[in-house]
């Protein structure tokens, strides 16, 4: 079936690349924790006529005419988001997760203000204060780390001491490569002690929160939550900012997003967000979110059995960070490359206090959101983990790699990417 008849006729080069990507996704296993598959309904909304419409402003307060249907769509997205995350206010206009964080900083801080967030080397995110980002030229970042990378325990006593000493305006939770849950109650208490706003960057686990599979920071006193809408939430690539109950903060965030930081919202993406939020409100999505965790545990057991060191000793969420250099003598870069060869896609990743370079680190990061969407259960995920270790141990054995590739293709054939998710 040709899904791109006009593209095929008009631009053969782009058509060929997209069809190639379709095939890659269909015949391989996606284990990058920040990637997932969207439903056909989300795709259709994202490819709708709303892509033609400029809608600067907010529902009922637009700068251009012709906004009746855009207002309907954005209001649907906002109401569904609030219900999903137990928030009183939602801004669904951020184009992505990083712009959502930047807009949040602009709303709540003045240049030179201090933010206390997780160190990137211990699982944090670029927008939480990595020196390569422009944000560090505007704001002052101080960091907290794990007390023990073997267990994942955060040193909350040290966090409190740093907060009292540095007086941050924002205490920032969230991560991109941390396999455990944070103690939101303690972090919220620390924020209140020093007069900081407690903010959660839930980009990686938003779907798990929405699916009630992990804790919701708003239940423990957090004020603001930023997130992407893809990853575990299974929506289009985009961002969002939620405010628990403080209308003054919500108004500042709205002004910071538009006109402070962005121009016109991407209305076709907002429509796709509305669809994905509707899917996430279904009972079936809660079953999915819980299965993501079960599948990650199944993979954890295999890696433990095979003697592969996992940072924090395993996982409590959707991802695993494995030290393949220390355990198997293969760098993260080489592990990523050979696993890609057999049809398993994941990413190289630095581990805590890594002695290797970021582009060729000691670890790999992988997770279960996408293969769970395909319908994989614990048994199948355990087999995937076995094939991963097998591949890394036999990475120079071309015959064995071909055998693994064939098995991966068979697995994908039995569990095709679904078009309906509810």
Detailed description of the structure:
The protein has 422 residues and is an alpha/beta fold. It has 2 domains: 9-30 and 283-414, Aspartate Aminotransferase, domain 1 (Alpha-Beta Complex), CATH 3.90.1150.10; 44-280, Type I PLP-dependent aspartate aminotransferase-like (Major domain) (Aspartate Aminotransferase, domain 2, 3-Layer(aba) Sandwich). It is built from 16 helices and 16 strands. It has helices at 5-10, 12-27, 40-46, 68-85, 97-108, 156-166, 184-194, 206-210, 247-261, 267-280, 283-305, 324-328, 332-341, 369-373, 378-393, 398-414; strands spanning 29-30, 57-58, 61-62, 89-91, 114-118, 140-144, 146-148, 153-154, 170-174, 197-201, 224-228, 239-243, 319-323, 344-345, 347-349, 363-367. The strands form 5 sheets. A 7-stranded mixed beta sheet has the order 4-12-11-10-9-5-6, with helices on both faces. It has a 3-stranded antiparallel beta sheet with strand order 13-16-15. The chain is globular. It starts with a helix and ends in an 8-residue tail after the last helix.
Describe this protein with a few key phrases.
Aspartate Aminotransferase, domain 1, 422 residues, alpha/beta, seven-stranded mixed β-sheet, Aspartate Aminotransferase, domain 2
Structural class: alpha/beta
> How can the largest sheet be summarized?
7 strands, mixed
Mean pLDDT: 97
User: Percent range for helical residues?
Assistant: 40-55%
CATH architectural designation of the largest domain: 3-Layer(aba) Sandwich
The low-confidence parts are none
Span between termini: 23 Å
Shape: globular
Assign the CATH superfamily of the largest domain.
Answer: Type I PLP-dependent aspartate aminotransferase-like (Major domain)
What would you report as the Rg, rounded to the nearest angstrom? 22 Å
| CATH level 3 topology of the largest domain | Aspartate Aminotransferase, domain 2
Tell me the strand order in the biggest sheet. 4-12-11-10-9-5-6
Number of helices: 16
Number of distinct beta strands? 16
């Amino acid at each position: 079936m040709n899904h791109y008849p006009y593209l095929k006729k008009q631009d053969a080069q782009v058509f060929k690349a997209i069809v190639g990507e379709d095939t890659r996704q269909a015949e391989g296993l996606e284990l990058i924790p920040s990637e997932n598959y969207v439903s056909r309904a989300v795709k259709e909304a994202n490819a709708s006529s709303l892509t033609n419409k400029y809608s600067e402003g907010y529902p009922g307060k637009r700068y251009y005419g012709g906004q009746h249907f855009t207002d309907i769509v954005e209001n649907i997205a906002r109401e569904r988001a609030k219900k999903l995350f137990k928030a009183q206010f939602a801004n669904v206009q951020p184009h992505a997760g990083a712009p959502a964080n930047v807009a949040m900083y602009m709303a709540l801080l003045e240049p030179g203000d201090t933010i206390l967030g997780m160190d990137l080397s211990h699982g944090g995110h670029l927008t939480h204060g990595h020196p390569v980002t422009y944000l560090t030229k505007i704001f002052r970042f101080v960091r907290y780390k794990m007390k023990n990378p073997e267990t994942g325990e955060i040193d909350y006593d040290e966090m409190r001491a740093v907060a009292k000493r540095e007086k941050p305006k924002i205490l920032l939770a969230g991560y991109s490569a941390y396999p455990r849950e944070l103690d939101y109650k303690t972090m919220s208490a620390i924020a209140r002690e020093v007069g900081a706003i407690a903010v959660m960057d839930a980009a990686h686990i938003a779907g798990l929160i929405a699916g009630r599979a992990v804790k919701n920071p708003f239940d423990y006193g957090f004020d603001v939550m930023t997130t992407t809408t893809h990853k575990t939430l299974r929506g289009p690539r985009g961002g969002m900012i939620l405010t628990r109950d403080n209308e003054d903060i919500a108004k500042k965030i709205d002004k910071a997003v538009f006109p402070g930081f962005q121009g016109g919202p991407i209305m076709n993406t907002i429509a796709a967000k509305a669809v994905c939020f509707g899917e996430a409100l279904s009972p079936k999505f809660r079953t999915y979110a819980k299965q993501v965790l079960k599948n990650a545990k199944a993979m954890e057991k295999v890696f433990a059995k095979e003697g592969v060191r996992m940072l924090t000793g395993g996982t409590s969420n959707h991802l695993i960070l494995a030290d393949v250099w220390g355990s198997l003598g293969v760098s993260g870069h080489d592990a990523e490359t050979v696993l890609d060869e057999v049809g398993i896609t994941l990413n190289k990743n630095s581990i805590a206090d890594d002695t290797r370079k970021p582009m060729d680190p000691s670890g790999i990061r992988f997770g279960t959101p996408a293969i769970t969407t395909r319908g994989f259960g614990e048994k199948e995920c355990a087999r995937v983990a076995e094939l991963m270790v097998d591949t890394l141990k036999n990475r120079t054995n071309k015959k064995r790699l071909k055998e693994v590739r064939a098995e991966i293709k068979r697995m994908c054939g039995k569990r095709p990417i679904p078009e309906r998710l509810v």
